[in-house]
Request: fold
Amino acid sequence: MMIIRKVRFLLIFFLIKYVPLYSQQVPLGAEVFGAASYYSSKFYGKKTASGDILNRDEFTCAHPTLPFGTMLEVTNLANNKWCIVRVNDRGPYAHGRVIDVTHKAARHLGMFGSGIIKVKITVVGDHSTIYIGRPQFVFENSTDLVKDEDTEQPQIPLKQKKHVVKIKPNKNIKKKRAARKKKHK
Reply:
């Protein structure tokens, strides 16, 4: 009777231990929006939660829940710069942040000026393998393709540069702003 209890306990223990590992798989293409920051210099050269040594010249990141080895595409929403990073650490533990990236990834995202940026995170792979890549050209619809009469092959049209019109602020607006500044001082 005692042996049956021990065997039952061990079966339940292993079942409970391994179920969360398989339930943590995140579907490819899942997107999350939030705030991102980058690691402080004091963490480089130390072990991460996965056992790797944190290196500032690698595209890695910390995420609170995603499995180690998950590949994420991180896009800076302010300037549309992006990079792909691998989850190898846990964190960040600051309220409101969803990811910490290394200095190399932060440089690619253009976040050194602000420190904390708003990002879109897309799951693009797992087990350190990328399954979803960015297409070379993105079209709104099929009418963006132009057929070449000679070859009958679809050609990618050259897009014209958008003209930017700068508007000078009205003098009255400048006066109102100056009055508000004086009022708050």
User: Anything to note?
Assistant: The first helix runs from residue 2 to 23. The longest strand covers residues 117-126. The domain at 26-130 is CATH 2.40.40.10 (Barwin-like endoglucanases). The radius of gyration is 25 Å.
